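I hope you will forgive my troubling you with a question about protein structure. Could you please explain, in whatever detail you think fit, how the structure tokens follow from the sequence? Thank you for your consideration; the sequence and its tokens are set out here.
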Amino acid sequence: MRISPSTFYYKPKHSRNEREQQDADLRDKIEFVQAEYRCWGYRTVQVHLARHYSLQVNHKRIRRVMFKYSLLRRIKRRFLATTDSNHPYRVFPNLLKGRSLTGINQVWVADITYIRIKTGFVFLAVVLDVFSRRVVGWAISKHIDHQLTVAALKMAIETRLPAPGIIHHSDRGVQYACDEYIGVLKAAGFEISMSRVGNPYDNAFAESFMKTLKNEEVYLEEYIDIIDVLDSIPAFIEKVYNRKRIHSGINYLPPEEFESILQDEKRKQELGQITLKFPD
């Protein structure tokens, strides 16, 4: 027909009113998602709309609409140090450098964070399976001591029953280096690994979970006391993070669904080979 490709593919632009209506419709869908997942970013919203509503929308458009209607969340930030590495206990070397993972229960990471309440702070200890990003153990206490971390570790062991040889990685804090904690690890057959001095990337997976927890739950609430924390944090971990929160590192799947695929050989083949490698 002797016309240019641009002419062949040309589509009339939507009128201003049509575009406003489409933006308003998309805003309704985004707000519906954010009613449950209050601090998701535009990329996570994009994947969620595609997975659950078969709605294919460019991430740039979602970002524009979220900015237009003030749906991008601004996070309140506080800081309290939780790592005390000035102690007399043995510090173990980092065993993760250059290591590759091919399945769950090969490397667990552990960390502690604080949660502000009206009269001060309470503390949360978690244990995370690196391969699936799933939280496998957690504990909450008013005290940041070894009893907190041991409780989270014992929950993880009782839930997963890992085989001997699994690596447990943490920072060098006294709560992880003390005799009580190391004793539980050795009794269960763990290999013990700790972060290098001043290197925040060594425990990046645990740090990433803590950031998600703070941004999508803690910073959006005003907890009065530890009862409020006990009502909210476990529900976020088990019902939202483990079951629904999607992760780009595991093919935009929630941890629980990803692990179920790993147990199904047919679905695992469809997913393809996934290997996680730590930097040297």
